[in-house]
Specification:
Shape: globular
CATH superfamily: Class II aldolase/adducin N-terminal domain
Bound molecules: manganese (II) ion
Radius of gyration: 18 Å
Distance between the termini: 49 Å
């Protein structure tokens, strides 16, 4: 990597605002995005790193994501609006996430996606580096994974000396391409990204992708294991998707220290 590419705008965590603020996002959506940050922390999906975004409810060509900070500390005032090139609209000089291009390019590629979670949750990373074992849906809560969870190999796009981060639109688009129509993509040696048709669904999937990875690893320590069949994955995903609010309500209480 040349010095100039390190100094380019894609590498900085600050960027000038581009475009103008349109209609304000629904305050209820922003409040839910703040809660999503806190839930993902409490449920062990994010720590000081990782982020969650929601598509703007009035501007489908934009999305909402916190400024560069630990998810635990996010408040409504920290939510920034972005375009699909990863430009902030109203950051006003505040630091922004280097990996905002993950969100931008998935929203661009997938009109069905309304929210994205990117994390380094620890049980998933081993499946991103294993040469032998694939992540499979192993319990009824994680049928949404389907029978194929793609792995993004950043070396195919950034060579052998990258920092493994998705720091520009080109890498974001490559990740979105690898993800295809799947709900989850693993990122080799880094983490994972999940998508949902709502913020609550994306959070649910992020939590249960981590749970599933942990269960699969535990099962493998016992020997051979049985994964869901394709039909079981589809049927359970369809039925469990109606129960997401039950999990959300509980997780909100936990995140607020009330449960
Ligand atoms: Mn990351």
């Amino acid at each position: 990597m040349t010095a100039s590419s390190l100094e380019g705008p894609a590498f900085t965590s600050k960027a000038a605002d581009v475009g103008s603020e349109g209609p304000a996002a629904d305050p209820a959506l922003i409040a839910e995005l703040v809660l999503a940050n806190h839930i993902l922390l409490r449920e062990g999906v994010v720590d000081a790193f990782g982020h969650v975004s929601a598509r703007h409810d009035k501007r489908p060509d934009r999305f909402l994501l916190a400024r560069n900070m630990a998810p635990a500390l996010v408040t409504a005032a920290d939510i920034v609006e972005f375009d699909f090139d990863g430009n902030p609209v109203n950051a006003a000089g505040r630091s922004i996430y280097l990996e905002r291009f993950i969100h931008a390019e998935i929203f661009r590629a997938r009109p069905d996606v309304m929210a994205v979670v990117h994390s380094h949750s620890p049980s998933i990373v081993p499946f991103s580096i294993s040469k032998k074992t694939k992540l499979l849906p192993v319990c009824h809560m994680s049928g949404f994974l389907g029978m194929r969870t793609p792995i993004f190999e950043i070396r195919d796009h950034a060579g052998y000396s990258s920092d493994l981060l998705i720091t520009n639109s080109k890498l974001g688009a490559a990740l979105a391409h690898t993800m295809g129509a799947c709900n989850c993509a693993l990122m080799r040696g880094h983490g994972s990204t999940v998508a949902g048709s709502s913020l609550r669904e994306a959070v649910f999937r992020a939590v249960y992708t981590e749970v599933n990875a942990k269960l699969q690893s535990e099962a493998m320590s016992l020997g051979e294991f049985t994964a869901l069949s394709e039909g079981e994955a589809e049927t359970s995903a369809r039925n469990i998707s109606t129960q997401i609010n039950r999990a959300w309500d509980y997780w909100v209480m936990k995140a607020q220290g009330k449960a």
